Amino acid sequence: MPRTPKELSQPQTDIDHLVRAVNQLTVENRRLRGAPSRPSSPVRALPTQRPNRIP
């Protein structure tokens, strides 16, 4: 059965929405990565893990 024009355009619409979401998340990620370097930032870097010590 042939697909309708709407069915054919849906994958492209989904791709466009996903690309926008990825771009927004990339911008937010860059902003958050730069945040710890600002003194008034509410974001704090997580402490690094200590190596396991053998007793």
What can you see in these coordinates?
- The protein is mainly alpha-helical and 55 residues long.
- It is 55% helix and 0% strand.
- It contains 1 helix and no strands.
- It has one helix at residues 5-34.
- It starts with a helix and ends in a 21-residue tail after the last helix.
- The model has no long low-confidence stretch (mean pLDDT 80).
- The chain-level structural class is mainly alpha
Largest sheet data:
none
Strand tally is: 0
Summarize model confidence as the mean pLDDT.
Answer: 80
Large-scale geometry: elongated
Strand content: under 5%
N- to C-terminal distance: 70 Å
Number of helices: 1
Could you tell me the radius of gyration in angstroms?
A: 22 Å
Could you list the spans in which at least 5 consecutive residues all have pLDDT below 50?
none
What order do the helices and strands follow?
A: H
User: Roughly how much helix do the residues carry, as a percent range?
Assistant: 40-55%
Brief overview:
By secondary structure, this protein is mainly α. It has one helix and no strands. The chain starts with a helix and ends in a 21-residue tail after the last helix.
Helices and strands in order:
Blueprint (H helix, E strand, L loop, with lengths): L4 H30 L21
What key attributes describe this structure?
55 residues, single chain, mainly alpha
